[in-house]
Amino acid sequence: MTHYAEKNTAITGIGQSQIERKPTVLPFELAVRACEQAIADAGLRPEDIDGAACWPPVPAGAVTGVGAAGIADITNSLGLKLNWWSGADPAAQLSPIMEAVAAIAAGYATHVLCWRALGERSAPSYTKSGGGGWVPSGGMEWMVPYQAPSAAIWIACHASTHMTRYGITREHLGAIAINQRRNAGLNPKAIYRDPITMDDYLSARLVTTPFTLLDCDIPCNGTTAVIVSRLDAARDLKQAPIVLEAMGARSHNKMGSWLGRTDYPHQAMHDAAAAMWTRTDLTTKHVDSAHIYDGFSWLVLSWLEALGFCAEGESGAYVEGGSRIALEGELPMNTNGGQLSEGRMHGLGHLHEAMLQLRGLAGERQLKKELNVSLVANGGGDVAGALLLRRDG
Amino acid sequence: MPDQPRRAFPAISQVNHHFWCGGKDGSLHILRCGDCGHWIHPYAARCPACRSANVAPHPVSGRATVAGFTVNHQQWQPDFAVPYVVAIVELEEQSDVRLMTNMPRTPIEDVEVGMPVKVYFEQHGEIFCPLFEAA
Fold it and tell me: Strand ranges (DSSP E) for A34-128?
């Protein structure tokens, strides 16, 4: 059998700062705290960390904004001595994990510190900054000139195609938002915890059809950090390691483009999901909990189809009423409230929650069943990554 | 040019000039492979279908179909006149040549997935911004 290097790695430590809608602490300080937590959680010392990976690439000196902690600043603040580091972008929010696997397989590192640091609430938003002077480039060049400065608009266009083609309704999107808010009620760190009804959902303020405010995730400040370790070294540490069973990301259809895929309205998640399943004997039936990127509610439907939990076009029926994806359901999903209710911890928040569930440390929202395998799927648009975690042994 | 909405355009370069400025002659221009006829958008130096280097801008019919759209209500900027339509259209020549666009000449309630549309241009200096309207 082909050797898949991720099976020889594990997540050994996790850390997460407070999640702030109203800033009280410098975002970079939150990042340092999360990294310190993750290292301590693994039972490691800073001098044991020999690799670091962060997405997106963040320049030194950035302490707020969409990337609030660069590799140089974290390294110098924690006194790390690195043999390898990366700010590359192969797998969207999960890029640091994929990079860490490669570095460990290559022998460049044993324990890799990975983080995602958000400080968007401490930086001027596009709306408040006046928007002047933006010269869009890359994939943005083809969208931003059309008064489309937000992924809400880009993804809403994809959603309209998919929902029109398959008869998927706003009530289907609502089932996702309502279920996640219910879960957030059991998560003390979540920004929004009061339950919502379908009436609340359907009457929420429109952002861009079919999305209301309740279909869009919540910008926040905070950092999630994890340690990826070589499996033999992980087994010497204080926590039972959680093994990376499979990880996939792929670009086989118009790299970098939101618009040009031959299989539109599919997005990069269809490539990532296919890649992940080629690297494991496990199937959707083995997944005990799912932690799926929900920057916008519709992305969850697209991921469910991409991953094969249901057939193309049947994701609306899959989530209808919300019972299947509830804490008690057959596929408990976004058990922390996800980005729609906990806050936009941007992908690694989903990985953190999967780890809590697999370790049995999710508090009031801990799933009652025994968990062995959890799925984390991140991204959309032109980049995505997906992975399966399983308990060791 | 009265009532032109403010738009954030990219820097014009050798590889996007045909798209953003090519409408001066009244046609939308897209890269095309001179050997196999494959349409290429955005820029590539070789044809991804046949690897030919014989790639150059070529006028298209301007006819397209609405693949998806959204009616934006969010006031992203104070001078954006909401609500407005942002659509993704597929060119008649090749369906994976998809463009994001606005449709200000078409009543919002008339816009639907699958509707035929045609290109027109809104001039901003040297840029002729492609927009679409009901065909």
Answer: 51-54, 84-86, 111-119
HEC string of A273-308 equals HHHHHCCCCCCHHHCCEEEECCCEHHHHHHHHHHHC
- A5 contact B CB<8A: no
Cβ–Cβ below 8 Å for A159 and B97: no
* Contact at CB, A262 and B86, closer than 8 angstroms: no
Span A87-113, pLDDT tens digits: 999 999 999 999 999 999 999 999 999
Q: How far apart are CA B48 and CA A119, in angstroms?
A: 40
| Predicted pLDDT at A393 | 77
Q: pTM above 0.80?
A: yes
3-state SS class at A74: helix
The tens digit of pLDDT for each residue in B103-132 reads 999 999 999 999 999 999 999 999 999 999
Whether the Cβ atoms of residue A82 and residue A369 lie closer than 8 Å to each other: no
Instruction: Indicate which of A137, A144, A147 best probes the interface with B, i.e. most B CBs within 10 Å of its own CB.
Output: A147
Residues 137-156 of A with CB under 8 A from B: 137, 140-150, 152-154, 156
